[in-house]
Design goal:
It contains 15 helices and seven strands. By secondary structure, it is of the alpha+beta class. Helix 1 crosses helix 11, helix 2 packs across helix 3 and helix 2 packs antiparallel against helix 8. It is elongated and about 80 Å long. About 35% of the residues are buried. The structure holds iron/sulfur cluster. Iron/sulfur cluster (SF4) binds next to helix 9 and helix 12.
């Protein structure tokens, strides 16, 4: 039997024994649950995403229920997961499936790909696991596993590395056959090996079901693969935010649709420019963006937050109105509102802004 077939069987047998019993894997694949899991777990660890998955599914048990919800309800159910464009795309896709496809999900990779928020990786994952099509896929785990099996020297994130990896994933896709894993199981097995055994640091080669066919292990240096670019430190920004109070309420602004954190509620404020004090930056932002002059008072607290491409320190100050009344500026906030504790629970806020509420 050919080496590739032996390796496929060994990996498939390990997957059948050792795969994590994730809820969307149980029983016959359900397109709604599989799609929700794929979108939710983009840029989110499984352990972190699972409680959200269960809560979201309880709140929106099927695609019609999700399609019928308001955007605010969907964003609220997503709150804390970050990357909110995923939630908006999920909602738009649910509305499309409910209205245009009679609630039926696509059955090809091209069909999945046509839904908002579904890229080539997600389309291939869904077409293979839900529909059983031989659609290959490449993610970070697959890149690491393949680069180690073949001890490839190039960076897997380079154009050449990506090309090689996709071509190899296609070559390794099992042919149809009784003794072969299904395309969905094969894709999941490759990713599961990367998630549980072939880890970026300290891969558990001793417990690896395909160790005997691994060139990186044979060279005695699995961790050397894939080659990595030296990481640049992400830029850091400081942002000042103002808490203007009225009784037990505070003024919040809703970010515009489109762009980062679109549609979420936050304390008005803005970036501290070089050479500016936080208080001066805050007074300037309120003057420029809300048309109101404020007296900036005590520093109430600060939180640090890491986004994918920068880190931020968000500092909250108490403030009082000196002149004017705040008005929304379309580029900054499409709506302003006074919100008390009941509204804080109901409205969707970015994680960093929600943590600021503790300082009030
Ligand atoms: Fe990864 Fe080690 Fe298995 Fe090779 S032998 S695939 S490096 S865990």
């Amino acid at each position: 039997m050919k080496k590739e077939s032996l390796r496929r069987r060994a990996l498939a047998a390990w997957y059948a024994r050792s795969a994590r019993p994730l809820p969307w894997r149980a029983g016959k694949p359900d397109p709604y649950r599989a799609w929700l899991a794929e979108i939710m777990l983009q840029q989110t660890r499984v352990s972190q995403g699972l409680p959200y998955y269960h809560r979201f599914l309880k709140r929106f048990p099927d695609v019609r229920r999700l399609a019928g919800a308001s955007e605010g309800e969907v964003l609220k159910a997503w709150e804390g997961l970050g990357y909110y464009s995923r939630a908006r795309n999920l909602h738009a896709a649910a509305r499309h499936v409910a209205a245009e496809q009679a609630g039926v999900f696509p059955d090809t990779a091209e069909g999945w790909r046509a839904l908002p928020g579904v890229g080539p990786y997600t389309a291939a994952a869904l077409a293979s696991t839900v529909n059983g099509h031989p659609a290959c896929l490449v993610d970070g785990n697959v890149k690491r596993v393949l680069s180690r099996w073949f001890a490839r020297e190039e960076e897997m994130d380079s154009a050449a590395g990506e090309r090689w990896c996709w071509a190899m994933a296609e070559r390794l896709m099992p042919p149809a056959g009784l003794d072969e894993p299904s395309p969905g199981d094969w894709n999941q097995a490759l990713m599961e090996l990367g998630a549980l055994v072939c880890l970026p640091k300290n891969p558990a080669c001793g417990a690896c079901p395909v160790a005997r066919w691994c060139a990186a292990r044979a060279k005695g240096a699995p961790e050397r693969y894939p080659a990595k670019k030296p990481k640049k430190k992400p830029p850091h920004v400081e942002v000042a935010a103002g808490a203007l109070r009225r009784g037990n309420e505070v003024l919040l602004g809703r970010r515009p649709e489109g762009g980062m954190l679109a549609g979420l509620w936050e304390f008005p404020g803005g970036k501290i420019e070089p050479g500016e004090t936080p208080k001066a930056a805050l007074a300037r932002e309120w003057r420029e963006e809300l048309g109101a002059r404020i007296i900036v008072g005590a520093r109430l607290g600060a939180v640090d937050h890491a986004y994918s491409h920068f880190t931020m320190t968000l500092i909250l100050y108490a403030c009082r109105l000196r002149q004017g009344s705040p008005l929304p500026a379309p580029l900054k906030h499409i709506e302003l509102r006074w919100a008390g504790p009941a509204a804080w629970r109901r409205l969707a806020l970015p994680a960093a802004s929600r943590r600021l509420l503790e300082f009030l």
